[in-house]
């Protein structure tokens, strides 16, 4: 399940890369300064950053897919939590990781980056030592992951694929690769438009199970999995939870009887199989349609947080849903 | 404590509390994240009593029978148990602030569970976490006992100091393991450190029940000795009771029981601290009268707290420890204000 889609994906991305490089050659060189929005605040860049620091595996994926390696000074928050795929490792090359989990202000200042890409609860904590405000003092502009803006701005729209597109375009624009980013987004949109939709009058009832025993940890209204489920013609049964990620009650999940599960595969400690086994033993969940029929797809962290891996993950989800 | 005049007729009080407990039990089966009508409760329970086949159950029936009824029973057992632990510890150490927290019993259990979550994973299947919590709780007791072994006399002060230091140590361990763990571990850690009744299942209820049984038998068996302790070590001694031995016995029994409770419900604070005070105010200090009143109030308090924790943020659930800690803190504040008024 893991190797086969990867082969087709890499072939496709190679073709896409060819197309993209032609496109970017044809496009006019982007003019600076550029201004992008970051959680409602304007960030202006007079020139592309030369020593960027990118946090977390999903945001690093965005940077690598835009080919920003030569403009990256470091990454953080990867090895402390996840296994890197060989492709990721290779693309990352010898860019160093300054902290395996959350970077401290000292970690960051020691690197002297000229740009930081992170999110609330994705490397930064509200009131913590590393925030856009604390970094501003050291002339380090911070681009904040849109999905995480809900932690500082309660008036955000519910999740849509814009969470990926907008951030990808912002990152491209900041680094002078706006045309490349636009082309990539157009190609993603094309891939998603070509997906078979789940059949049935009502959208397929889907539930994401991340972790938790007495209460499940799941994705709510503002997290990208809600948009990913919609992209395959489904509906997140927890899309009324006013949070990006949070815990709900088992009985609420069971009462909404999910027909399909998205299991978060952390690739350790039994991974997604263990989650399914847990559900099969749970007094309520074992009777839900999804568990009874073993209808699920296992997706990794970077596939369920905003990043380029979302698109292949949605395709994977669509295949599993229509199987 | 002058919350209410001491009621001498404890049997009347017992009946009132039992009736109240029955009402709140029903309320706790009806309220929660999903809507359940009264008629559906009857339907579900009917199926269950008849031993109906699986296919007859709707999801709401299952919510009632498989989740809410065991959850209600867990709240009653753990609430009553924690109150009893608090009462025993407060009497034997003659300290009004004694509760399972103070002696490191809870923090040891939490550290055991969190260590397993972050370091080894569930090596023994579904029983791993309860077992780890139990082992952690007993480990903290062993450390306290080792600390006390040097001394021939187990004074209350020495016990509390030993317990406190162990409590801090295990809390530090818990935080250290949390720091080491992955992102999702933080969620499970929250459950173990703030408590919750969401893990209640028919097949794990026997763990806290065992704890409650051992506690009840011990306190019933030693009720006269406990009464004698109220007037101090010297008086107890003159009545033929060895206060230090009783303290130690009570401590070991309380530790065992607390580990049983925490193994299923995590660390639920303030019930053990607050309830014995209420019980004494209502039923007087003598244990024959007071202990079962404390158990009833403890059960009521935890049951009500759980109803609140499940209802205010539905479909999300608040850790029940947040509710009990808020109620407990308000209780202490009320008591303080009341005392200064009277002064």
UniProtKB/TrEMBL annotation, chain A:
Highest taxon in the source lineage: Bacteria
This protein's UniProt keywords: Signal
Claim: Ligase is one of the keywords in the record: no
Positions of the Fe/B12 periplasmic-binding domain: 51-323
InterPro entries named in the record: ABC_Transporter_SBP (IPR050902), ABC_transptr_periplasmic_BD (IPR002491)
Signal peptide: 1-29
PROSITE patterns, per database record: FE_B12_PBP (PS50983)
Protein known as: ABC transporter substrate-binding protein
Annotated SUPFAM superfamilies: Helical backbone' metal receptor
Source organism per UniProt: Rhodoferax potami
Automatic annotation (TrEMBL), chain B:
A Pfam family recorded for this sequence: FecCD
Record protein name field: Iron ABC transporter permease
Record family assignment: Belongs to the binding-protein-dependent transport system permease family. FecCD subfamily.
Bilayer topology: Multi-pass membrane protein
PANTHER family noted in UniProt: FERRIC ENTEROBACTIN TRANSPORT SYSTEM PERMEASE PROTEIN, PERMEASE OF ABC TRANSPORTER-RELATED
CDD domains: TM_ABC_iron-siderophores_like
Keyword Lipid metabolism: no
Matches recorded under InterPro entries: ABC_BtuC-like, ABC_transptr_permease_BtuC
Signal peptide: none
Record's keyword terms, sorted: Cell membrane, Membrane, Transmembrane, Transmembrane helix, Transport
Organism of derivation: Rhodoferax potami
Regions that span the bilayer: 69-89, 101-121, 127-148, 160-180, 200-220, 250-278, 290-308, 320-337
Location of this chain's protein in the cell: Cell membrane
């Amino acid at each position: 399940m893991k190797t086969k889609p990867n082969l087709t994906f890499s072939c496709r991305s190679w073709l896409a890369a060819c197309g993209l490089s032609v496109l970017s050659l044809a496009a006019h060189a982007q003019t600076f300064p550029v201004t992008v929005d970051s959680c409602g605040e304007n960030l202006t860049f007079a020139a592309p950053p030369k020593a960027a620091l990118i946090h977390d595996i999903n945001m690093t994926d965005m940077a690598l897919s835009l080919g920003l390696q030569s403009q990256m000074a470091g990454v953080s928050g990867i090895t402390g939590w996840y296994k890197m795929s060989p492709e990721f490792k290779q693309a990352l090359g010898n860019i160093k990781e300054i902290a395996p989990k959350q970077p401290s202000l000292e970690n960051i200042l020691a690197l002297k980056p000229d740009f930081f890409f992170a999110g609330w609860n994705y490397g930064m904590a509200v009131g913590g030592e590393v925030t856009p405000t604390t970094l501003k003092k050291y002339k380090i502009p911070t681009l904040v992951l849109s999905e995480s803006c809900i932690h500082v701005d309660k008036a955000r729209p519910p999740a849509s694929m814009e969470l990926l597109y907008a951030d990808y375009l912002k990152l491209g624009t900041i680094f002078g690769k706006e045309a490349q980013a636009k082309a990539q987004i157009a190609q993603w949109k094309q891939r998603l438009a070509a997906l078979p939709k789940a059949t049935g009058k009502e959208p397929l009832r889907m539930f994401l199970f991340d972790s938790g025993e007495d209460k499940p940890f799941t994705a709510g209204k503002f997290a990208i999995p809600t948009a990913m489920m919609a992209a395959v013609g489904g509906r997140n049964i927890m899309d009324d939870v006013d949070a990006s990620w949070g815990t709900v009650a088992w009985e609420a999940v069971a009462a909404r009887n999910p027909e399909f599960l998205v299991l978060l595969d952390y690739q350790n400690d039994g991974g997604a199989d263990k989650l399914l086994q847990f559900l099969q033993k749970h007094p309520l969940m074992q009777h839900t349609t999804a568990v009874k029929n073993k209808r699920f797809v296992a997706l990794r962290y970077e596939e369920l947080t905003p990043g380029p891996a979302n698109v292949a993950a949605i395709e994977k989800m669509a295949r599993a849903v229509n199987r | 404590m002058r919350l209410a005049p001491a009621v001498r007729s404890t049997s009347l009080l017992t009946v009132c509390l039992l009736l109240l407990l029955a009402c709140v039990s029903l309320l706790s089966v009806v309220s929660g994240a999903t809507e359940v009508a009264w008629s559906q409760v009857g339907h579900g329970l009917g199926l269950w009593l008849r031993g109906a086949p699986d296919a007859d159950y709707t999801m709401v029936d299952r919510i009632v029978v498989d989740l809410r009824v065991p959850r209600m029973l867990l709240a009653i057992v753990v609430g009553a148990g924690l109150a009893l632990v608090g009462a025993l510890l407060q009497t034997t150490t003659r300290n009004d602030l004694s509760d399972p927290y103070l002696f490191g019993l809870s923090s040891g259990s939490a550290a055991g569970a969190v260590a397993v979550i972050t370091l080894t994973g569930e090596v023994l299947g579904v029983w791993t976490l309860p077992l780890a919590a139990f082992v952690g709780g007993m480990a903290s007791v062993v450390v306290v006992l080792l600390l006390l072994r040097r001394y021939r006399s187990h004074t209350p002060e020495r016990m509390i100091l030993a317990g406190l230091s162990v409590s801090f140590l295990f809390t530090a361990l818990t935080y250290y393991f949390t720091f080491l763990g992955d992102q999702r571990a933080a969620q499970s850690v929250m459950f173990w450190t703030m408590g919750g009744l969401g893990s209640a299942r028919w097949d794990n209820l026997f763990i806290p029940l065992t704890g409650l049984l051992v506690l009840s038998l011990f306190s019933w068996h030693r009720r006269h000795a406990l009464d004698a302790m109220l007037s101090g070590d010297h008086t107890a001694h003159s009545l033929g009771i060895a206060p230090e031995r009783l303290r130690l016995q009570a401590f070991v029994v309380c530790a065992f029981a607390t580990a049983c409770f925490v193994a299923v419900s995590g660390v639920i604070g303030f019930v053990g601290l607050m309830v014995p005070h209420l019980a004494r105010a209502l039923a007087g200090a003598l244990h024959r009268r007071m202990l079962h009143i404390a158990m009833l109030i403890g059960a009521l308090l935890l049951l009500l707290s759980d109803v609140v924790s499940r209802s205010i943020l539905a479909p999300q659930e608040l850790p029940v420890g947040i509710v009990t800690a808020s109620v407990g803190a308000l209780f202490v504040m009320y008591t303080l204000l009341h005392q200064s008024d009277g002064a």
